[in-house]
Amino acid sequence: MAVVETRKLTKVYAKAELGAVNEVDLLVREGEFLVFLGPSGSGKTTLLRMIAGLEEPTRGEVRIGGRDVTRLAPRDRGIAMVFQSYALYPHLTVRKNILFPLQAQKVPRARHAEKVEWASSLLGIGHLLERRPRELSGGERQRVALARAIVREPQVFLLDEPLSNLDAKLRASAREELSRFHKRVGTTTIYVTHDQIEAMAMGDRVVVLAQGVVRQIGTPREVYDQPADTFVATFLGSPPMNLMEAGEVIAGFRPEHLLPASLATGPAVPLRLRVATVEYLGAERIVYGVLLGGRFDGQKVVSRIPATVPAAYAADETHDFVVPEDRLEFFERASGKRTGRREFAWR
Ligand code: ADP
Ligand code: MG
Questions:
Q1: Ligand of minimum distance to the alpha carbon of 161
Q2: Over pLDDT 90: what percentage of the chain?
């Protein structure tokens, strides 16, 4: 059953011509970790806030647990939200911060201690209960904010870029911790991020948004390997997919599939490349180059070469590369949409 459903959910702000969110249809499954991914301004927060009841839709419907909640207040929706700024109460201890929603919900006092115990042990912060927020690290504060959200045992968690205040290393561990936490509690979660790595790493499914429109919904593997259009193809992946315009179609291939010719195993398209620059990143090298000869002479391309490949690359050298034929993607030029069409002249 869908825990959260949106039907043609739309938000047009006054004076704006384009909607911030346009006719979004979503079915979020029980226990799922669903990620909204898109660039800044693509409507992720607005969509999440309409689901939460913090923003009134211009049109459309929100259903939670099978009920139409479009006109219900946030507190009546069975959701808990964690924002980018955790907004813990600075003068209250961790214990009291976690208790706060229980008091508002009028949970009997006798049950408070056990609930705080449960939430804090799930997040591993039992030893921090008597501290105040300023005595905590960023990661610990983030866990307190999550504990405060789960203590209400919501049907749905809504998380808006909750890790973006953490430094890179902490983000990676917090990401993994959050995934483990989700597996343990199993609460349906919608998670907003502009970070494709977070989306790929954490999401059961990813909703890719651009300009308030859903471009694709799929598992991380689907959105990466079978992008619905050129926007998804280039938004996911770093560096992005190489795209070559050729008449009615655009041919695309990911940098990791532009391989040194010596690694070719099956049918492949040969490409000769003049190296422009090389970024040495330890585990891999990113080779930026220009194609030489043929139909795409002069076209810029990028290749990712793992450190396990011993070949050396330097600026101004010429090297032979290949793209395995089954790694080529094709998109309609007019619409940008992926197409099954495969015939294509490289020469
Ligand atoms: P995201 O979270 O993906 O960065 P937002 O949902 O915050 O995007 O914003 C989507 C679009 O709606 C943006 O163009 C933004 O400028 C606009 N927008 C957001 N909030 C308001 C508001 N209160 N009034 C007018 N426009 C807004
Ligand atoms: Mg946002």
A1: 2
A2: 71
Which residues are near ligand 2, the ion (C-beta closer than 5 Å)?
A: 45
What pLDDT band is residue 202 in, cutting at 50, 70 and 90? very high
CATH number, domain of 321, equals 2.40.50.140
Out of 169, 190, 225, pick the residue that ends a domain.
225
For 83-142, how does the pLDDT look when each residue is reduced to its tens digit (9 = 90+)? 766 689 999 999 999 999 888 778 888 899 999 998 898 888 999 999 999 999 888 888
- For β-strands 188-193 and 156-160, DSSP reports them as parallel
- Calculate how far, in angstroms, residue 294's C-alpha sits from the geometric centre of ligand 2: 44
Question: How high is the pLDDT of residue 57?
Answer: 97
C-alpha 209/C-alpha 308 separation (Å) is 36
HSE at residue 320, side-chain half, CA atoms within 13 A, is 7
Pocket-forming residues, ligand 1, beta carbon under 6 Å: 13, 20, 38, 40-46
Strands (DSSP E) contained in 84-163 are 156-160
pTM confidence score: 0.91
For the chain, the average pLDDT equals 92
- Which-ligand-closest: CA of 209? 1
* Residue from 17, 40, 45 whose mutation best tests the ligand 1 pocket (most atoms within 8 A of CB): 45
CB atoms within 10 A of CB 56: 10
Residues 163 and 245 in one domain: no
